[in-house]
Amino acid sequence: MGASQSKGKAAVISNSKKPALNLPIAGATTQSSFNPPNQKYLNILISYGHSSRATAAAAIDALRYRLQITRDCSITLQCLITVHHIIKHGSFLIQDQLSMYPSTGGRNLSNCRDHSSPLKRKLSSWVRWYALYLEHLLSTSRILGFFLCSTSSIVDKDRDEERVSSLTHPDLLKELDSLVSLLEEICKRPDFLHIDGNKLVDGVMGLVGEDYLSIINQVLFRVKEMSQRMSGLCFDESVDFVCVLKRMEVCKEKLFAVCTRKKDFIESLWVLISETKDGLMMKIKSKSCNFFNLFMPFLCQ
């Protein structure tokens, strides 16, 4: 172990009153590695969520501190991947502790620039994007009322559809808007081809690809529900719904590259979006030809 790596790990461990809680974090985030965190250490960290609230809080605090003190972009990505694993696989106890902190651990990662090597300069752009994506993921989860993409918070399909069907039009549009914003954030990822084969980036995109299918599923529930309510939507709600669907269509080509699984399922969503948008635009036109003509150039962009 190099001197700088030893110093970094010592700083993490010395920060906590319970040093043992920091060991899996130090093991998962190693300066000499361009690999994702070791699954063994991730499992240990996630297991703290099945203990006490104090233990879960101490583990998250140690992870946050590790993210704060490092300026190495590979360690930062390892920390963010660890955050993502907690969102996806942690118990509610440790997820709840995580939700109290920004996924960036208090650092402004939008300015992350690691110039120590050409590879790390490229990885810095992934840090900037991934941190913002995780912030969007947590924000959307707060709006939905559960941790989106979490295996420990999988909502029964029938109960989920029942919950969605009970929402008001504005609440449905708010949730749909947040989900589409998350898809738009996925589309902003850096150019994958310039860093193809890097295991850290592969690890990030593997997790994001899994999220994508969960997000699409939640979008499908809400688009179906809103399309069934089409006749009851007021003029402004119809226009807002069309705009959200149009934003989805703008994302279509970029999203195809994120995940190649369940192609038939995903294609059915795009068909539904196209048909629903066409129906809404006909409804808007029938309600107010003058208003429709005013906004037609914007809606058809």
Automatic annotation (TrEMBL):
It is found in: Cytoplasmic vesicle, Clathrin-coated vesicle; Golgi apparatus. GO terms for biological process: clathrin coat assembly; clathrin-dependent endocytosis; vesicle budding from membrane. GO terms for molecular function: 1-phosphatidylinositol binding; clathrin heavy chain binding; phosphatidylinositol-4,5-bisphosphate binding; SNARE binding. SMART domains: ENTH. Its main location: cytoplasm. Residues 13-148 form the ENTH domain. Keywords: Cytoplasmic vesicle, Golgi apparatus. GO terms for cellular component: clathrin-coated pit; clathrin-coated vesicle; Golgi apparatus. The keyword Cell inner membrane does not apply. Pfam families: ANTH. PANTHER family: CLATHRIN ASSEMBLY PROTEIN, OS09G0468150 PROTEIN. This is Putative clathrin assembly protein. It comes from Tripterygium wilfordii.
